[in-house]
Design goal:
Elements lengths: L3 H20 L3 H21 L6 H8 L2 H21 L7 H24 L6 H29 L4 H28 L5 H14 L1 H26 L2 H22 L5 H27 L12 H24 L6 H29 L5 H28 L7
Helix pairs in contact: 1-2, 1-5, 2-4, 2-6, 4-6, 4-7, 5-6, 6-7, 9-10, 9-12, 10-11, 10-13, 11-13, 11-14, 12-13, 13-14
């Protein structure tokens, strides 16, 4: 085993940060220390494969990306937690000590990463990526502790952004390792090209993945509704649930007979229409004293970014299926269009809540009625079109 001294020192530093965080009742420090220890364990596991054969190294590196996701997501969670609580510890001196420890730990990780420069085998390549991800925990903690000691006006927001950005970078590193291991340990660029070719050639597989994104949107919007205490955001989460169900029904059409496809096609239209009409009814209440939540600039920016990403995915899905004449493709295009229309309402509501002062309930309600109505008409078109479809005659 190489670099035993490094692992002993780095583990001791992470353990010292955890103990200091426990004494000072600092959960961000404790979680960051635990994430760092997981990163170190992954590095230790990889180190054992330096002298192994190429085939054994491939087997060793296969699950590393999945393991790396756990501490990477943990760093993101720390960032989110800091937004709600960045109070100073019981003893400020302990915060100062933890800052010094995190600086020393970051330096150790940088030195270790520099020492891996000359190792060109597979284990060396994965260790370099793991070291970059490991720096996310120690460096983000260092910055957060400095902000907590200084107690600046935007310390909570800056600390939260630091954790989310560093953790997000570690998640991307993990995703890169998973992608590379899945496609034969090629370069990242070649692995991405293979993935793009699969997207083009296997549309059905990636339509299933889009259902997973629908689940993600529902969970994400539900979390945002809790963060912002907004029933309006919760209504959008319910609408996304309906869209997810409609997409699932459309997906199953690929394996059905023509008669059942027509029934499912009609059902997709009905789900879109009902979900959209419920959204319209909710928007109508804004004309009669109902209020939409007022978001801070940061929360509004997060909502807007979230909906722009969803908007882009919906447009990509519709563009990918644009030439297909199959009923399943037409149903999926309608689902993407209905989801995109409601994205406009949510984005407008988020931006206007901080861009202009005053009550925007009337404007938001009007947008909800207009775009919700267009989505309902989309569903109605599908229903009407389903009755125009001819079932194959039975000889």
């Amino acid at each position: 085993m190489r670099n035993k001294l490094y692992f002993w020192i780095a583990t001791a530093l992470a353990l010292a940060i955890f103990v200091a965080g426990y004494v000072n009742r600092s959960s961000p420090a404790m979680i960051s220390a635990l994430c760092t220890m997981v990163f170190l364990w992954i590095q230790y596991r990889l180190e054992s494969g330096f002298e192994k054969s190429e085939a054994e190294q491939r087997k060793l590196c296969k699950p590393i990306g999945y393991f790396l996701l756990i501490p990477s997501v943990g760093v993101v969670v720390v960032g989110i937690q800091i937004y709600f609580n960045l109070n100073a510890g019981i003893l400020p001196i302990i915060d100062f000590v933890m800052t010094i420890l995190s600086v020393v730990l970051s330096v150790c990780l940088v030195i270790y990463r520099a020492g891996l420069k000359w190792y060109k085998n597979l284990v060396g390549r994965f260790l370099r990526m793991t070291s970059i991800a490991a720096l996310a925990a120690s460096m983000s903690l260092m910055i957060v502790l400095v902000l907590r000691i200084l107690q600046t006006e935007d310390a909570a927001m800056l600390g939260s952004m630091t954790g989310v950005i560093f953790g997000g970078a570690a998640v991307l590193v993990s995703a890169n390792m998973i992608l590379v291991s899945v496609y034969g340990y090629r370069s990242t660029g070649k692995s991405i090209r293979i993935l793009c070719n699969m997207i083009i050639s296997k549309k059905l597989v990636f339509t299933r993945i889009s259902i997973m994104f629908d689940v993600f949107w529902v969970v994400g919007k539900s979390i945002l509704s809790i963060i912002s205490a907004s029933f309006f955001m919760f209504a959008n989460a319910l609408y996304s649930s309906g869209i997810g169900i409609a997409r699932f029904v459309a997906l199953k059409m690929h394996t059905q007979t023509k008669e059942k496809q027509i029934v499912s096609y009609r059902l997709v239209g009905m789900i879109i229409s009902v979900a959209s009409l419920c959204y319209v009814i909710y928007s109508v209440r804004l004309f009669f004293g109902g209020k939409t939540a007022v978001y801070s600039m940061y929360v509004a920016f997060l909502i807007a970014l979230y909906t722009f990403v969803e908007f882009g995915i919906n447009i990509r899905e519709a563009f990918r299926l644009r030439k297909s004449k199959e009923l399943a493709a037409k149903a999926l295009r309608a689902v993407s269009l209905a989801s995109t229309l409601i994205c406009f309402v949510l984005t407008q509501t988020a931006i206007m809540s901080f861009a202009a002062e005053g009550d925007h309930s009337f404007t938001n309600g009007l947008s909800g009625i207009v775009f919700g109505g267009l989505a309902a008409l989309t569903g109605l078109f599908i229903i009407i079109d389903s009755y125009k479809q001819k079932t194959p005659s039975v000889q």
